[in-house]
Every structure is written in structure tokens, then in C-alpha cells.
Design goal:
This protein is an alpha+beta fold. It has two domains: 80 residues, 3-Layer(aba) Sandwich (Glutaredoxin), CATH 3.40.30.10; 113 residues, Glutathione S-transferase Yfyf (Class Pi), Chain A, domain 2, CATH 1.20.1050. 51% of the residues lie in helices and 6% in strands. The protein is built from seven helices and four strands. The protein has a four-stranded mixed sheet with strand order 2-1-3-4. Helix 4 runs parallel beside helix 6 and helix 5 crosses helix 7. The structure holds glutathione. The site of glutathione has 12 residues, from helix 1. Glutathione binds next to helix 1.
Length: 210
């Protein structure tokens, strides 16, 4: 399998973090990373558009030649194809809990956080828009409140005592935020604690550029 990816970009990074977590638990997932240089626009070239007509990353190329083009679907594929020591719980209630937190953070924080980065200091060269960026910051606050409340019991990870896909997602987007040089969570005590603790773990620290 090949994983078309690019460092720093949040959706590819969450898959990279997921793979690091699985490998830390002993999973042997044979996947070769292939960097598609988005700064040079390679993701818009025919070679990559043939893999994913939307031109986004990550893309997983299966040994069959099929492509999986959504980061969470790639994670779902790895969970199903390499089921020993999965990151998602197998019992329905903890599974729903982990999925619910991850989906909530994606819908209420990370979509807007990515848009905010592009409206503030886009690595892809999109035009800055201060008004739009401010509106996005306001819209993310309930999602930050939600995460802050979850973490208020001192838990190390978003779903409890073990890492989950929710941690992979949020940590990947917080790195993207740091790329701007601005910090939207500086006043958020629990999120700061979680963020620093999560990304300094030896299991994942090499996945982060910043
Ligand atoms: N829903 C997709 C989003 C993928 C996505 O937007 N990837 C970004 C990098 S984080 C990208 O490739 N952007 C390039 C572009 O839109 O031109 C996923 O979860 O994989």
C-alpha cells in the first residue's frame, strides 16, 4: 500500500498520527508514504487527480490498485484490515463515545480551524481575510468549551486514559494552527495541557514538525 501524504497538512497528519499510535501498540501495517508536494501544486497535477479527482490528500492506494480518498475512511480501512490492537474500541458504547468525540471536534472545531489557517496565513497561498478569520474563531468557541469540559477531569487523552482517533484529529489540526504563529487555545488551560502532553509523547513526537 502507498499513502500519498504531505507533512504539516492536518488531514494527512491525522493518518500519520493514527499509524504511529497503531505501531506503538505493535501493529504491522505495511504502508509506504509518498509525499505529494502541495507547495509546488503537485496535488493539482493529472498524476494525483487520477488518484483523487478532488486533488486532496491523504490518499491510500491499496494493493488492489483501488484508492481511498478520505482520511477517516483510510483509518477505517486500517482498523478493519489490521484488526489486532485497534485504536477504536470494539464494544459498542466506548466505540460510540470515541466516534462521537472525534466527529464533534471535527464538525465544531477542525473544519473551521483549517479554514481559519487559510484565511490567516495559508500555506497554499489563499488570500487572507481577517473578517472571515474572526468569524471562524467565534464559531469555534463552543467546540473548545466542549473539549475543555471533557478534559476537566484530568484525563490524559480526549476519550479517557488511552489515545484515540479524536486525539489524532485534534492534534493534527492544532499543529496546523501553530504554523500561523498564533495560538487560539492559549487561554484554555485543559486544552493546553492535553496538547502539550499528547504531542510530546515518544510514540508520536516525530510526527510533528512544530
Ligand atoms: N475530507 C478530506 C479533506 C482532505 C483535505 O482537504 N486535505 C487537504 C490537506 S489537509 C488538501 O489536500 N488540500 C489541498 C487543496 O484543497 O487544494 C479528508 O478528511 O481527507
Amino acid at each position: 500500500m502507498k499513502l500519498y501524504t504531505v507533512p504539516l497538512a492536518p488531514n494527512p497528519t491525522r493518518v500519520t498520527l493514527y499509524l504511529a499510535e497503531r505501531r506503538a501498540q505493535g501493529a504491522d501495517i505495511p504502508v509506504e508514504p509518498v509525499v505529494v508536494n502541495t507547495l509546488k501544486g503537485r496535488h493539482r497535477e493529472p498524476e494525483h487527480l487520477a488518484r483523487n479527482s478532488f486533488g486532496t490528500l491523504p490518499v491510500l492506494e491499496l494493493d488492489s490498485g483501488a484508492y481511498v480518498t478520505e482520511s477517516l475512511s483510510i483509518i477505517d480501512y486500517f482498523e478493519a484490515a489490521f484488526p489486532a490492537a485497534c485504536l477504536l474500541p470494539s464494544d459498542p458504547e466506548p466505540l460510540a463515545y470515541a466516534r462521537n468525540i472525534e466527529r464533534t471536534l471535527e464538525m465544531r472545531v477542525t473544519h473551521d480551524l483549517a479554514a481559519w489557517v487559510h484565511a490567516t496565513k495559508s500555506p497554499l497561498g489563499y488570500e487572507a481575510n481577517a473578517e472571515h478569520a474572526a468569524a471562524l474563531v467565534a464559531r469555534m468557541q463552543p467546540g473548545f468549551d466542549y473539549a475543555e469540559t471533557l478534559l476537566a477531569d484530568g484525563r490524559a487523552f480526549l476519550t479517557g486514559s488511552d489515545p484515540s482517533i479524536a486525539d489524532c484529529t485534534l492534534a493534527a489540526f492544532f499543529q496546523f494552527m501553530r504554523y500561523t504563529g498564533l495560538d487560539l487555545i492559549a487561554e484554555r488551560e485543559q486544552l493546553c495541557r492535553w496538547d502539550t502532553g499528547y504531542r510530546s509523547r515518544p510514540e508520536v513526537e516525530d510526527c510533528f514538525l512544530m
